Structure formats: C-alpha cells, structure tokens
Amino acid sequence: MHRSYPNFSFTVESECQEGTKARTGTVSTPHGLVQTPAFIFCATKAAIKGLSAETMKECGSQIILSNTYHLLVQPGGEMIEKMGGLQKATRWEGPMLTDSGGYQIFSMGHGSVGNEIKGRRGAEGGAEFAPSLVSISEKGARFKSYYDCSIKSLTPERSIEIQRQLGADLVVVLDECTPFHVDKDYTKSSMHRTHRWAMRSLREFIDGDDGTQALYGIIQGGVYPDLRNEAVEFVNKAPFFGIAVGGSLGADKATMHQVVSHTMANVRRDRPVHLLGIGGIADIFHGVRQGVDTFDCVHPTRLGRHGGALVKASFWTREQELEEERANQDAAAEAAAAATAEEEASIGGDTMAAGVGASKRKKRRRSGDVRKKRHPVVPREHVNLLKGRYREDHRVIDEDCGCPTCRGGYTRAYINHLGRAGELLGGMLVSQHNVFFMNELMTSIRTAIAEGRLAEEEDKWLAPGLRARDFHKRAAAEAAAAEAVKAAAGEESGESHH
Amino acid sequence: MHRSYPNFSFTVESECQEGTKARTGTVSTPHGLVQTPAFIFCATKAAIKGLSAETMKECGSQIILSNTYHLLVQPGGEMIEKMGGLQKATRWEGPMLTDSGGYQIFSMGHGSVGNEIKGRRGAEGGAEFAPSLVSISEKGARFKSYYDCSIKSLTPERSIEIQRQLGADLVVVLDECTPFHVDKDYTKSSMHRTHRWAMRSLREFIDGDDGTQALYGIIQGGVYPDLRNEAVEFVNKAPFFGIAVGGSLGADKATMHQVVSHTMANVRRDRPVHLLGIGGIADIFHGVRQGVDTFDCVHPTRLGRHGGALVKASFWTREQELEEERANQDAAAEAAAAATAEEEASIGGDTMAAGVGASKRKKRRRSGDVRKKRHPVVPREHVNLLKGRYREDHRVIDEDCGCPTCRGGYTRAYINHLGRAGELLGGMLVSQHNVFFMNELMTSIRTAIAEGRLAEEEDKWLAPGLRARDFHKRAAAEAAAAEAVKAAAGEESGESHH
Q1: Which residues of B touch A52 (CB under 8 A)?
Q2: Which residues pair with A411 in a beta bridge?
Q3: What does DSSP assign to residue A140?
Q4: Looking at residue B342, what is its pLDDT?
Q5: Please, which pLDDT band fits residue B118 given cuts at 50, 70 and 90?
Q6: Is the CB of residue B152 less than 8 Å from the CB of residue B73?
Q7: Distances (CA, A) of A154 to A130, A159, A216
Q8: Which of A100, A203, B56, B358 sits CB 3.0–4.6 Å from B61 for a disulfide?
Q9: Chain A residue whose CA is closest to B83
Q10: How does it assemble (chains A, B) (predicted)?
C-alpha cells in the first residue's frame, strides 16, 4: 500500500548542533503552515474554553485540535459537516487536527486510572466527563454517550468517516489507548489489534481521500521497550503522512521521558512526529530533543482557567529577590522595634517598660506593621495567582510578557480578586497569557535550535531544578549509581550469571 | 447647602420635536464623556461577566458600573483603592458609576420578592446570591456577608467612603429600596429615612470631595404618586449633580411605565437622570420619552450568557418570511406527494396502489423529507439561540449587525452547539452581540431624537406589538374604556357622588 499526500508536506529546515535530535521544520496543510516544533491547543468541543478564535490568533497560535469523541457525542459529525467543517464553524480557519476518539473512549473510561495516564495527577487530570466503555471487539468499540446515554459504536472506518465530516487537516487512526496498569500480555494483544485497526483506518481514508486531509499513525506499546519497537516498525512502514506517539507513557515523569526517548530512537525522520497529550515545559524540551515536532495538551488553558499562570525562570529570580528584600525589611523593622523597646525600657528605668515595648512589638507584628513570614518561594513551571500572597501584588504576571493580559496591564491583584469572586474573566485573562506563553516558548525553541543554543534557551524557561536536561542527567546518574550498587552487590555475593 | 461639581457637567444638546421629553446630551466626567441617552453595563464585581474591557470598548460602550455591595463584601473598598481604583484595576479607564450598596442589601434581601422588583420575573430575575439583612436602624443597615458570613454594617457615611475608595466618577447616596409588596406607611417612613440618609451622604461626600466624583440623589416612594412627588421635590432641591429614579416601580410593566412617567413629570431638567435597573428595549424607549438620560441593567449580558440574543424588528420579518417559504415548500412537497400517489394509483389501476402511495407519503413525512411543522414565530425583544430550531441555522444572528460575533461569521448553529456543549464561548459571543446591540440602539436613539424621528426609529427596534408607544396607547385606551364602563355603570345605577 502506497500513499502520497500531494496537498501536504513536511520539510525539515534545521537540525540541532548540540548533539540532540531537535529540529525545526514546516508542516504545510491546505489551511496554512505550521512551523515546528509547535504546540497544538485543545478546542475539545470545537471551542477553546473561554477564548475566541480571534484571541487565539492574537496570541500567536498556529494550530488547534478538536476531539472526535466529544463531537460525535454532540453535535455529531454530520452537524459539523453541515456547518461547513470545524475550521469554518469555529472561525479558526487555520490548520487543525482531530484525534480518532479512541483515547477518550478507552483510557478515560478506566475512571480514576485515566488520571494516571501520561503521569497526570490530581486536579490537573480531573476528567470532566465519564465515558463508559461497553465492549471492545475486533470490529471496534461500543460505549455509552455521556450526553444522552445512548449506546454508540466506533470502528476504525466510522472514526475516519466522522473525522472527514469534521474536516480537520490532520486526522488520526483509531487506536486503543491502554492505561499503564494493564499487563504486558493485554498491552501486546491490544497493540496488535490497534495495528489491524490502523490498516483499516488507512484503507477507509484512502477510499474517501479528496486531498484535503492527511493521516497520522499511532505508536502504542505501553511502557514495554520491545512492544514500542514493534509499534515503531509498524508505523515506519505504513504509508502515513505523520506519526503520533500515544498510549501509556508510564506512571511517573521519569518513565515518561524514558518511554519517549526509547520510542523516538527509531522513528523515521522524514515525517512529522506528534507527542499526544504532553504539555509541560520540561517535557516539551525533553520531547524536542528526542525529535518530536508537535505537542498537544489541555494543560495551558485548563491551568489558566484555574488561575495558574505559566512563568519563566526570571519570574522566580524576581520573586526570590523580592522575598529577600522583604526579609531584610522585616529584620530592620524587628531591629527598630527592639531598639524602641530598649529605649523605652531605659527611659522607664524598670523592667515593666521593657515589657510594654515587647508587647507593642508583638501588637505591631500582629497588625501587619512588620510583614508576616511568607511561605518560601519554591519555583514551579506555573504560579497559582489565586494564592493569598498575590492579593496585594500590583504587578502584571510578567512585565516582559507581550500577551494581551500582561501588555494590557491586568495586575496579579485584580486577577486574584476575579478568581475569588468567581468571575470568568480571571480564567480568560490567565488562559490567554498561557496560550501566548506556549507560542512564545515554541518560537524561542525554534530559533534556539536554528542558532544551536537550545540548552541556553532552556535556562530562560525553566528555573534550576526544573530543567529536563538536569532531570535527565540526574536520572542517568541515579541509574549509573544503582547499576554500580548492583554490580558491587553481585561481586560481593559472588553470584555472576555471565 | 450648595454644591458645584467643577470637573463634571451635563449639557442638553437637542430636544425631541415629537412632543415627548426625550433629549440628547453629554455627561462630562474626569474619565471622559458619555453621550446620552446612554446604557450603562454592569461590571457587578469589577468585571463584565465573560467580556474584557477591550471587548467592551470594541463593542462601543461608553460607561460601565460596579456594585458597592459586592465589592465591599469582596475584596473590599480598601483593596480596590490599593489597586488604584476601579478604572485602573479593570483596565476600563473610562467613565464609571457605582451604586450605594443599598439596593442589594435591602431589596435582594427580601428573597423571592427581590425578583419582583422592577417587574423582573423567573430566570431573568434569579438572584445569584442571597444577602441577608440583619437590621435597619436610623444609623444604617447591618447585614451578613454572603462571602464569609461576617456581620457588616453600611451607613450613609460608610457607603460614600467605600465609593470614594472604589473611585468611580458617578456615585450614589445610600437609600433603602423597598419591594412593591410593602404597604404605603412603611414605604413613606422608609422614604423619609432615605432622605435623611441622602443628606448625610451628601455631607460626607462634601467633606471628602476632591473633585474626582459627582453625587446622584435617588427618588424613592414606591408606586405611590404622592410619595414620588415628595421624593422628586426633595432631590430637585438638594445639591446633587444627578438624579436617579429608584425603588419599586411596581409588579408589572404597565405600573412600571406609569410610575416612571409620573415620577419624571416634575424632575428638574438641568441634571442628568438615571433610571436604575431598567434595560428592556421598549422600557428604554418609554424612559427616553419621559426624559431619562441613562439606564443600567444586567439584562443584555445575563441574557447573552444564556444564549438570548437581542434582535431588531427586521429579524422577525425575516423569520416570518422564511417560515412562509417553508410552509410553501411543505405544501408543494405535500402536493407532489399526493400527485405521485394518484399517479401510482392510476398506473396500478387499483385502490391498493393508492394505499401504498399514501403510506409512502406518510413515511416521507416521518423521515423528514417533508419539513416538520415548526412552532409559530412569535416576536420578542430577544431570541433564544439554544432552541432546537437554530440547530441547523447557518446564518449569523443578524447579517446587518456589525458586532464582533455577527461580523466574525459565528453562526446560530455554532452558537447553539456551544450552548448545548456548555462552552463559555457561546455565552461570550452572544453577550458581546448584546452589548454592541445596546450601544447601537442608544446611538440610533440619539440620532433619531436629534433628527425628530424617534417614533420611526422605534419601529426598527421593536416588532409591532412590542412597541412602548403602542403599549402606552393601548394602556390609555384600556383605561379610557374602563372609565367609560365605570361611568356607564354609575349612570345606570344612578349612583353619583358629584
């Protein structure tokens, strides 16, 4: 089976000079170009939550995606087709991707386990809906609609048909996404079925191809290196336009990075590669180094809706400086108060007066004259603007940021108020900051790759301790240490299987 | 007591040539000009729900208001002052008004009765919170905060102090707003206390006046003509910059129009007059004719959030034309089906075939080949885009509308989907349509007043049957008829008190 995608292309423009597989390129689609590495924002139900297409463009976005599962449940592919397709309906009019619907039906159907997929945890991974899988067979999957409780079925052919109705530029084969807790046997047989489904998806795609869409295959195989190798070989051979890395990437960040590195090792280099559902800054730097071209995740907009603003390394430097300044002020105030107390004591000439001075000092501290001890500043990839410490912070999120929120002069204190008051505008302001941030991040990564200074660039985006390459080094050192311990233990016990 | 407001002015520019008291003018404030008649949008908690300051400006808004009650509860006047005041915090930077906090504490505190105030009913009037009044005394009011359940007090002095911290251009005296179901005695004594509070508000205002704010008095008096007269006399005499018409305007639209007409009859003509909490299109036309200069209401944005789009008379003309067209199509399809059945019957030469034809026709009708009978089109001031009839309506709300939503090409079908999917964007798109609509309405009213064709202009905005002047005429005719009946009854029974 052969396939050409005449209205699509992927060209690699520059490759990293620092010994990684990072590269810049261009994915060309009928709805426009995507400069890679790129981030794809999630317009799950044909809308970015709380942001219009105009705002997305204003924030420099190149490409968005919608989810087949959600749209087949409501309003249905046929209805979107009648609207003229996703690009027209949403007024985005730019490049778009749709997934196959498999991810939601299978992985999210596993309930709480769905949160563990790809290392997501807690609130960030909280599913907004609970699709329920009824059955999986060779034919496809049956599930219960969360919208009207009707039983629906999704086969590889039907997924492609719906994605054709939706009309995105980049479409994806139906696959089963297994959570990390399933055993290797299940993962293996599921992967083989996924490969059969992929070929059926491809045939259905080719049958109806009118040149407006390009198909991505998906690499499954869970956390098992040999299965991943087999899946890579499969997608490398089949005539897909692009390749997506999917499935369980393990229960923690270390495993995720390992699985991505291992998987990317043998993926062919002439096709665009998409890493499904990953959106952390360090994870993106890690993925880019392994040769990943595009990423998607609800993270930036979901985080933003809840008051979490993505920030650069410089944010934490400033916070720490301010913290130090405050500590110095506190110490000075404390010293002044102590001096006053002593003075009062010497004037009064008795210990009672010193007592009064001390009580005044206590009172002053209670009333907030001397600043309260704050929680220490611990750098993360984002900052929660709804925290009490930002209630009287009259700075914008980042004075160097060019996003509509920061440039517009909306302060942390105002955003904090909006969050506390339950005003949607708060979430909208932080979401658009995050979207702009992600686009700026990807632009900077592209420039850095072209200019051979990706490691230097990472230092601007991630505070020490958060960097992917440090994490990687640390993991490698730990692994080496463990190996050494094991080797030493082996030597000691004299047990050698060689 | 005298007072000048050197940094504020109100100038009347043109008066209606059609025998009404409608007028155009300009309110000048330190944050800019407001061309009147104008609509004031509600940024209740220092944010228009779901719309940024930029969007409000883009939609042609001149002035917004915030509610003292909500802001004193959270984050507090002091906190807004630290943010640099409402204009700076919200990034609106234009003219603003704040109310005194009285309306929410008193009227909304009456629970379900709050919905009846000013003729609001059902979902539109659903309170988003439940403030609970603890006590009213001559000093002021005590109430329980809905935010943290703490007991707070609001006196005339405190209201002015908080409004100074908030920093809006136009501020308002503290008043008690009584619901329509309280008796005349209570309304009267409450009004007198409100007048004493108004004088205390004025004194407090003058004491701290730095020229950045101007004070509005409020006319109370419920639905009682003599009390309204007394209240009008009070505000006419006291040195307020502007005059607000507040309090209960009755339980229905007819009473509301009557109370407004009666109240406006003697209000002095050299001050801007604001009608509190009124935002229906017909009510605005009615108010404008009585000499009202500004209006405010949550209606346009609340309606929009729930999928209700404000529409002009032409919208219904088009809907009715389309309905007729569909009915014709249905009739034609029905005739064609009947012809086919007859033909089949004549070919078959027996009655069985005719039966088949009829059953096919039935089947065709069931399957939707012949369009289903739709609910008749009944004009209102707005249309609910979440209704099933708009699910496949691929037109924008109004093709002649220049708002970001209509101009941007967002269709009724897409908005319908967004509403059903629970996507915020749907409410945002309709809200911005409604804001633009209200501003366009007020601009058209100003032009029409200046050009002496207000009645003609009303026909563009309100479909027949919805017009305020028809309503007014109808009410007058009904009253005359009732009078005639009464007179006739009097004659018949021979009972005459003359």
Answers
A1: 408, 425, 428-429
A2: A396
A3: -
A4: 66
A5: very low
A6: yes
A7: 17, 6, 18
A8: B56
A9: A394
A10: Heterodimer of a catalytic subunit and an accessory subunit.
Closest to A319 in 3D by CA, of A372, A376, A280, A373: A376
Would you say residue B395 has pLDDT above 90?
yes
B121 pLDDT higher than 50? no
Which of A287, A307, A262, A475 is closest to A297 using CA atoms? A287
Q: In sequence order, which residues have a C-beta less than 8 Å from that of residue A384 and are 6 or more positions away?
A: A306, A307, A308
| Residue B470 to chain A, least CA–CA distance (Å) | 40
In the predicted model, residues of chain A with pLDDT beneath 70 are: 1, 108-131, 341-375, 489-498
CA distance A457 to A455: 5
Cα angle: A461, vertex A463, A469; to 5 degrees = 80
Residues 6+ apart with CB under 8 A from B482: none
Distances (CA, A) of A101 to A83, A201, A235, A247: 20, 13, 19, 13
Query: Cβ separation of B54 and A408 shorter than 8 Å?
Result: yes
Task: Give the gyration radius of chain B's Cα atoms.
Answer: 27
- Find, in chain A, the residue whose alpha carbon is nearest to that of B80: A414
- On whether ipTM exceeds 0.90, the answer is no
Q: Which residue is associated with the tokens 């309306």?
A: B103
Instruction: Give the residue extent of every domain in chain A.
Output: 9-297, 312-380, 446-493
* Residue B494 pLDDT level (bands cut at 50, 70, 90): very low
What is the C-alpha to C-alpha distance for residues B264 and B287, in angstroms, rounded to an integer?
Answer: 9
Q: List for chain B the helix, strand, coil content (%; round to 5).
A: 50, 15, 35
- Can you tell me the distance from the alpha carbon of B18 to that of B449, in angstroms, rounded to the nearest whole number? 9
Task: Determine the Cα–Cα distance for residues B180 and A419; give it in Å rounded to an integer.
Answer: 36
3-state SS, residue A259: helix
Fold category of B9-297 in CATH: TIM Barrel (3.20.20)
Distance between B128 CA and the closest CA of chain A, angstroms: 12
How long is chain A? 498
What pLDDT is attached to residue B131?
Answer: 61
Cα–Cα distance measured from residue A76 to residue A87, given in angstroms and rounded to the nearest whole number = 15
* Unique residue bearing structure tokens 């906190």: B79
Find chain A residues with C-beta within 8 A of B91's C-beta.
408-410
Residue B335 burial (10 A CB sphere; 0-12, 13-18, 19+): exposed
Report in angstroms the alpha-carbon separations of B188 from B109, B185, B345: 19, 5, 81
Q: Is A447 helix (H, G, I), strand (E, B) or coil?
A: helix
- SS3 (DSSP) at A134: strand
- If we measure between CA atoms, which residue out of B1, B165, B151, B9 comes closest to residue B84? B165
- Inter-residue contact A218 to A246 (CB < 8 Å): yes
Q: How far is B143 from B137, CA to CA, in rounded Å? A: 12
Q: Which residue has the higher pLDDT, B109 or B106?
A: B106
Torsion of the alpha carbons at A199, A201, A205 and A208, rounded to the nearest 10: 110
Chain A positions in Cβ-Cβ contact with residue B84 (cut-off 8 Å): 394
**What would the two tokens of residue B480 be?**
């005359």
Interface check A417 vs B, CB under 8 A: yes
